[in-house]
Amino acid sequence: MTIAPDASIITASANERVGGTRRAVRRPVVERDKRRSPILTIILWISLAYFLLPLVWLVISSTKTNADLFSTFGLWFGRTFELFTNIGQLFTFQDGIFLRWMGNTIFYAVTSAVGAALLATMCGYALAKYTFRGRSVIFGLILGAVMVPLTALAIPTYLLFSAANLVDTPWAVILPSLVSPFGVYLMRVYAADAVDDSLIEAARIDGAGELRIFATIAMRLLAPGLVTVLLFALVSTWNNYFLPLIMLNDPSLFPSTVGLAQWQQAATGGGGAQVLFSTVLTGSFVSIIPLVVAFLFLQRFWQSGLSAGGVKG
Q1: Quick check: 1 and 24 in contact, CB under 8 A?
Q2: Domain 97-310 adopts which CATH fold?
Q3: CB within 8 Å of 188: residues ≥ 6 apart
């Protein structure tokens, strides 16, 4: 029996013996229904426009002067192309403090994302592959923590870090970002199927310790899930505004979200500071470029790993 790899041309052949002779009989297989749903297509295009139109508006607005922002159509370019002028003003305004803010953002996001991904992977692996007293209770508490809004924890977190003299330090942003209940839940579910128990038992029989098993076997199998949690944590910390706002007072420690918000408040406050509108929009555009680059770089590890897991067995 021969099966072609393409589902649209799948055929089956069999050899039948009739009157002492052999002949090939080809049996057509019903093709997969390729009809498209107009309603789903419309919903898809609406969703695409919902996510892309703000980005298009931001890119176009970053090429305009402050006057063109209020006198031209939002989704089309202004009378002059001022992108490079706006970028130059962005990196020179207030002695180039935006560059410091971007450095802080990258440091906070990368440190928190890597730490959160590793902790979530270790915790999820332990909950999935080890049996110990209270495991179900711990996992239930983690699920409950997913439903708690971050704003409800703002004041307790601030009081805790204030008592530890960590307010207005980078640790006040990094340490809370290391906790990712959703990442733990995701890795627990993923590790349950991605890591075969027989591999762990075989490694134990060969004399490998638990730490070595996790580092050499489990981490490789959990890499797609780890990248997923890494991306979620990276975006969450990169876009975090409320936590740095209440934890940091020194402008030199601000991430780009808080710094640009300060400029926005100055722009709307009057006093001739409205020229900052184009600068704030350009800063917002520049601040999303590293996230786009991170997704483009990491998606190949993400997609390849998930595809490999999809054909298991």
Answers
A1: no
A2: MetI-like fold (1.10.3720)
A3: 123, 124, 125, 127, 128, 139
Burial of residue 44, with CB atoms counted within 10 A of its CB: 0-12 exposed, 13-18 middle, 19 or more buried? exposed
| CA 240 to mean position of chain CA atoms | 13
pLDDT of residue 302: 60
Can you read off the two tokens belonging to residue 206?
């060969």
295-300 own/partner pairs: CB under 8 Å, 24+ apart: 295/231, 298/227, 298/230, 298/231
What whole-number distance in Å separates Cα of residue 113 and Cα of residue 279? 28
Radius of gyration of the CA atoms of the chain, in A: 27
* Residue where the block lists tokens 């409320």: 242
- How far is Cα 247 from Cα 147, in angstroms, rounded to an integer? 23
| Nearest alpha carbon to residue 218 among 201, 240, 194 | 194
Domain coordinates in residue numbering, the chain: 1-35, 38-81, 97-310
Distance of alpha carbon 193 from alpha carbon 203, whole angstroms: 18
Model pLDDT for residues 217-254, shown as the tens digit of each residue: 999 999 988 988 999 999 999 999 999 999 999 999 99
Report whether 177 contacts 237 (CB < 8 A).
yes
Residue 130 has a CB neighbour count (10 Å cut-off) of 10
Tens-digit pLDDT profile for residues 38-55: 899 999 999 999 999 999
| Contact in structure between 29 and 12 (CB atoms under 8 Å) | yes
